[in-house]
Amino acid sequence: MEKLKQRWGIESNWAIFFILCAFAVNGSFAAWVAKPITSFLGLSPETINPWLYWPLRILLIFPIYQLTLPMVGWLFGQFKFFWAFEKKFLSRLGLGFLFKEN
Predict the structure, then answer these.
(1) What is the pTM of this model?
(2) How far apart are CA 44 and CA 77, in angstroms?
(3) What's the confidence (pLDDT) of residue 101?
(4) Cα separation, 85 vs 69, whole angstroms
């Protein structure tokens, strides 16, 4: 736990607990949100090959997860951590220009 606190710049074990809970809840939430979206798009394992359906669904879950992570983090009182986490993650994907200040 000490290594994790040091790496993330966190003071308390409770903050780590809430951060890990937010990651877990957000994963389930993103998958839950993706289901009606795939249905709306007419995608299901019955209508297309499951070998195509699941990669498409995972590709859909990824941006939903990224968009909802700061919101779920806010619910757990960890918005500052998750906002910094998102900026760092998206910068590594080459999307850092979205957060540049003039």
Answers:
(1) 0.80
(2) 36
(3) 62
(4) 9
Q: Is residue 102's pLDDT more than 60?
A: no
**Maximum alpha-carbon separation in the chain:** 50
- Containing structural domain, residue 36: 1-98
Is the CB of residue 81 less than 8 Å from the CB of residue 10?
yes
Cα-based distances in Å from 59 to 4, 7, 12, 65, 85: 29, 29, 34, 10, 20
As for how many domains the chain has, the answer is 1
Residues 6+ apart with CB under 8 A from 40: none
Span 27-40, mean pLDDT? 93
- Tokens 């500052």 correspond to what residue? 80
Of 79, 2, 67, 56, the closest CA to residue 29 belongs to: 67
